[in-house]
Amino acid sequence: MLKTKGGKQFIEMDHRIDETTSSLVIYPIYGVRFDILSKWFEKFSMKKLQDQRDRASIAFSGDMLSMQYKFYFNLNGEKYATDFNELQAKVQKCAEYVFSEYSSLDKLYNKTILPILNGEVYLPDVGYTTAKNYDDEGNLTGKTAEAEPTPYQKTANCKKI
């Protein structure tokens, strides 16, 4: 993680063991947090404050960048140096792209929000088979099966990685 003037830049390395290939699989995630944006959303979130502050304003996996997103390391150490060099080079390339293209809130707005507002890009049509209903204090009041998702739910689901 690197603290910046207005937030943070970070790379997270999620991982799991793939027993079918006897490999450690690493999934890098590249994120940027804008303090001013996250601070504004704090009052609208039901998550704990620390959870909110640890999250990115925008984040990408390698496949979202049209790059490799899974890196396999054989558990017996075979080809470790080659695999590590590949991971290092591709993570560096993705990180440089994300950290330059999303280095400011203006760049985020121009690259992500403005195309939606101009009708050049559309949010995916997503929905829920069950909608959750909350009261004004954020307490779950019930569920409605086969409900049409609200615009808020559609937008929130687009942020999932």
Mean pLDDT: 81
Unreliable segments of 5+ consecutive residues: 149-161
Q: Count every beta strand, where a strand is a DSSP E run of 2 or more residues.
A: 7
Helix content: 25-40%
Distance between the termini: 19 Å
Spell out the helices and strands N to C: EEEHHEEHHEEH
Assess the beta-strand content as a share of residues: 25-35%
Shape: globular
- Work out the helix count: 5
Radius of gyration using CA atoms only: 19 Å
Structural class: alpha+beta
Main sheet attributes: strand count, strand direction, barrel closure: 5 strands, antiparallel
Explain how this protein is built:
The chain is α+β, with helices and mostly antiparallel strands and 161 residues long. Helix content is 35%, strand content 29%. It has helices spanning 35-42, 49-53, 80-101, 105-117, 151-158; strands at 2-4, 7-18, 23-34, 58-61, 71-74, 130-134, 140-145. Strands 1, 2, 3, 4 and 5 form a 5-stranded antiparallel β-sheet that branches. It starts with a strand and ends with a helix. Mean pLDDT is 81; it is low at 149-161.
